[in-house]
Amino acid sequence: LPSTAESASLTGLRLCELFIDKLLSSTCKEFVLSVDHKNKAIYSNDVGVKEAVNLIYKSGRLEAFYEQLGAVLHMEGEQKVLRLKAEEEIRFVVVEESTLPNLSLKITLN
Description:
Blueprint: H1 10-25, E1 30-36, E2 41-44, H2 47-58, H3 62-72, E3 74-76, E4 79-85, E5 89-98, E6 104-109
Antiparallel strand pairs: 1-2, 1-6, 3-4, 4-5, 5-6
């Protein structure tokens, strides 16, 4: 977690873990994700990411997921970065094109 993170929700962290697992298990390097709240639809170029966010959305936990995801992102200059420590650091740059309720994200493995 970034040093700026004030607190973490166990539910929010589990939802983020599900989402991050789908990012890591994908062969994609660039992800596009959008939520169409009006039509209750999730769009993504990656099936796993779409399924995870659809599950989160249908469970009514999208806001908890979104808040926790924002809390785990590191600010690097003007960029928001999801940093994961494994054998080597894995970095995803997250660009927020729009916020809830019609969330739109572009995520790039860096």
